[in-house]
Every structure is written in structure tokens, then in C-alpha cells.
Amino acid sequence: MRLTYLGHSAVHVETGDYSLLIDPFISGNPLASVDVDELTPDYILITHAHGDHVGDAVRIAKRSGATVVGMVEICRALKPQGVGTHGMNIGGFFGFPFGRVKLTPAWHSSSFDDGRYGGMPTGIVLEAEGKRVYHAGDTGLFGDMQLIGSLGLDLAFLPIGGNYTMGPEEALEAAKLLRAERVVPIHYDTFDLICQDPQAFARSVTAAGAGECLPLQPGGTVEL
Ligand code: NI
Ligand code: MN
Asked: Which residue in 19, 35, 87, 158 has the most C-beta neighbors within 10 A?
């Protein structure tokens, strides 16, 4: 499995013959490392309805034919815009052709930019090729991350920007609870309010023995 950080919370996952995007905020993202019209995913996974996470999902899905996966309320809102959807809710796994997905809790909010309710905000656990990846979405710190970690995680994407989500201190505690082998910080430096030092965060994770922290530049890749 190859995972490429695209900036903000956007991640491109290549697994087997499948291409997946998580939270494809590309055209409005000053840090985006790719051209939105070059992405041809088979599936688009969305953590919550905020504009910096739904992003270009409809534009990309209409062109590539990707199926949008996320909370039922998000799917209900996007389906009339002409995209295929697979609605889920917080709970158990569903098996897709590329692997399994489950939605986890996240402490945040979730409405579309026009105010429509987007259901509960979520994190995502993705299993494929015998690997397990957690993308926390936007969230504050919560103790049940320990339960998510008990699945055994190869990689965790954790927001460190503060203000809207966990900052570096909370994300360090999250890394300790999750016990993932690798940690990649996300959701920082995109806007003035969420500027952080990912190298300092990485040093704190290493010092705590909370996994190998990889502060990826947009376009940077991890192979699992
Ligand atoms: Ni958000
Ligand atoms: Mn966000």
C-alpha cells in the first residue's frame, strides 16, 4: 500500500489495483501537491462535511466515476449532484473490493458550508493488503482512541494544527493512546490559524516512544 500526503487532510491511497482519496480538498488548498484534474480515484472517503474535507469530491467523482464513501448524511447530500455513494455510519467494518472500511467517532462538528447537517464527524479505519491505517479526520483528543489503537495500527494520520482540532500536545497524547507504528501529522500550515512545527511534533513523538513520526511534505509518500 502506498500513501501520498496531498496537503491539509488529503491523502491518496494506492492499494492493489485501486486508487482511493481521503478528504480531497485540492483546488482550494494552497498546499496541494497535485492538480485536481489529474486524480482518478475509484473511491473517495470523506471524514466530515466541512469544505476543507469534502473539497473537490463531487468534481473528481463526476469525472472519474469514483464512489463516495462516508456518513449517510453526506452521501444523501452529494448523491443528487450526480455521484455514486456508499453511506455508512459510525460502527463496524464494511468490505469493499479494495479492503475494509469503518467509521470511528471524532469530536468535532460536521455541516456543509451552506449549513446543512452532515451527520456526525468521523475518523476512518482502512484495512487493505493486511495493513491497517487510521485517518483521524478533524477531532479533539478522546480516550477511546485507545480502543481504535487496540485494532493494531500500521499508520495513523493525526491533525496537529490546533484551534479547530488537536494541537501538537493533544496529538502526542493521541499517538500514545493509538500506539500506531507510524504517525503522520496533518491539518497544519494550510491557514494562518493552524501553523505548527511538525519537526518539533515528530521529536516529541519519538521521545515518548509513541511510534515513528513522519512529517511528510505535500507529495511525500509512505509505503506499508
Ligand atoms: Ni472540520
Ligand atoms: Mn478541517
From this structure: 158
